[in-house]
Amino acid sequence: MNGLPSVDDIRADLPAVLARFRAGRTRAFSFGAGVPEAVLLTYDEFEDLGGESKFTLASEVLEPTQLAQRLPAVVEAARAGSGAPVIWGEAGEPEAVVLSTSQYRHLRGDDEPPPGVADDPTARTYATEPLPGSRPLDLDELAAADPFTRELLEEIRAEERPPTDDR
Question: How much is the pTM?
Fold first, then answer.
């Protein structure tokens, strides 16, 4: 077991997934048949990343019971590289989205992994090493380019100087 929830795990847990999303106790996560095949995320995150303008969406919001019935077909479409993101929630309120891992990468603006690499786009790590030729940021050099920034830096330094003893 790799710790990745299966389609059946998610189908049985949809109301609890919504509860965790509502409480802010979980973020976007992948699920599938041993490898990441689909992603669940909040509708707010989908909207914040511009999902409505990046994808053609169905007008209906599925109830959790409807999604539970359709989820195997949704994931099968994701495997085939077809299908659209599915919006779901309770009482017709969009609360969460199911989409393929490729669609999630597109939503976030991430690159696709090399062919044959099983990649979980919700657990991405990025290189943080400095680029060759990088050097530390010098505030004086940065402030020299803009009079307002230079004045602001001078004010900050004046506030941080120890008070002079004028007795």
Answer: 0.72
